[in-house]
Amino acid sequence: MADTLASPAPSAPPHTRMQRMLDGIERLGNKMPDPAILFLWLCVGVIVLSQLLAWLDVDATYQVVEPPPATAEETYYGGSTDSVYVGPTEHEPADDYQVREKTTEVEGLLTGDGVRFLFTSFVDNFRNFAAVAIILVVMIGVGLAEAAGLIGALIRKLVAVSSSSTLTFIIVLLGMISSVASDAGYIVLIPLGAVAFKSVGRNPLAGIAAAFAGVAAGFGVNFLITPLDGVLTEITNDASALVDPDANIDLAANLYFGIVSALFVTIVLTFVSSRMVESRMGPWDASQAGEQPEDEPVVDKVAEARGLRYALWATLAVVAVIALLTAIPGAPLQDPETGRVIGDSPFMDSLIVIIAVIFLAAGLAYGRGAGTIKTSAEILASITKSWAGMASLLFLFLLIAQFIAYFSYSNMAEVAAVSLGDVLEQMDIGAVWLLLGFMLVTMVVDLIMPAAIAKWAILAPIFIPLLIRLDVTPQTVLAAYRVADSPLNVLTPLMAYFPLIVVFVQRYNRQAGIGTVVSLMLPFVVVLSIAWTAFFVVWYLLGVPLGPGSPVHP
Questions:
Q1: Residue 481, SS3?
Q2: What b/e string do you get for 163-191 counting C-beta neighbours within 10 Å, with b at 16 or more?
Q3: DSSP category for residue 447
Q4: Nearest to 222 by CA among 191, 183, 264
Q5: pLDDT, tens digit (0-9, with 9 covering 90-100), for 182-191
Q6: Where does the pLDDT of residue 498 fall: very low under 50, low under 70, confident under 90, or very high at 90 and above?
Q7: Which residues contact 107 (CB under 8 A, 6 or more apart)?
Q8: Residue 145 and residue 379: Cα distance in Å, rounded?
Q9: Which end of the chain, N or C, is more open, meaning fewer C-beta atoms within 10 Å of its C-beta?
Q10: Positive or negative, the Cα torsion across 271, 275, 276, 281?
Q11: Where is the chain membrane-spanning (predicted)?
């Protein structure tokens, strides 16, 4: 025992130039404040900068197409003591619109009016930030399904039925889909990918790499509409309103692009995993294994299978009800005037509620069948726990809402968009190169701020007004952001789950560290970034719609 204790620890392998660079990024990132603190400082920065620019009389003059003046009626809803003004329900004829010259000045937030706005709008800014309501409603269903064990059971079931030849594809595909359940992919699928690869005699580190790539590198797209889509859509609309209040997009604005991209990304990541990563690693050496996790409790296979059957029946029942409310002539979820289902219709406006109800019904059914949820108290506790887990996110939303509101009040985004737009128009470099430049900026920012929501809240108010002015639609900018935001998630040590991935890798290689994970994931980043960017450019040039009623070009 004494000899064992006295033996020197194995020396750390020398750092390569790449590892030293990553160590520098990690040290820099550790000095970055928490996103909430960052947005607090951004709010302060907007306040100070707006006043400085106002003192310098910064403004922008440009042409804008405006409708004729319209009358509005004062109305009281639901017995409220506060009145609202409702305008006409029909748009004015196109011939009545006129081109006018407009000058916008930067408004200081430290003037009398500005200070009044800071104090009187604080609650309204948060209340009107629709992302808060969207994430809370969706997590009623998704949180219950996750707490009941449905998400984990689905992942285990699909991995179990996969053959050795299709295992990589299934693992990556599950990682793509798992973003609908927030953190479930990181916590459940990634360690399960290692176990699945090991069980068929393949290197478990390759299983971790494939799962991590699917969960994180393809995070921005999915076959389904996810809670993230609702948040990104609302931030996009808030940013679009800075220059065009009518430039709203709906929740399915990127649906077609997301579905096709999800399949494309899955194929690319599967190819990289099989042909580049796993082939280089070779067979796993069990003597290098570190401390293994404790054995998980034995899952009652019969109860789990029964729960999955119940969940399937519940899902089909909900889908059947939604179909009846949508497909029958005159159904309530159709547009009452046009009868449309896709586009501007009650069905599209109800997608968040429909997603929440499907997950709620499936989670309840699985919990009853598997015996994981037995009482109404447990149901309420699961929903409450899912909401409690979002406390830090809600506080972040509070600060993001203030940042966007202050940015909007100051008119800095509009002035910057006009000024940059004039410069870029004179350069005449084309929309494709502008989008590529925006994507490059997003990738660079992603290295120090991996959080998709926080990053988009900063970039959207800057780039969406600029690109709208240059005739690029908001849904196209959002699609470009999805492409640029995801691949580098697996490379930056600042990603919230990156340390957890290192721990997973150390279970099978006790000497592994950040450099090990980066060397595993670097091929995914390089190949996916190039291939997916090229895919987006081709999609844009072909002019394929990004979603229902969402053209890629104006």
A1: helix
A2: eeeebbbbbbbbbbbbbbbbbbbbbbbbb
A3: H
A4: 264
A5: 555 676 678 7
A6: confident
A7: 50, 54, 113, 114, 409, 410, 411
A8: 10
A9: N
A10: positive
A11: 36-56, 129-155, 167-193, 205-225, 251-272, 310-328, 348-366, 387-409, 429-449, 456-481, 487-505, 517-542
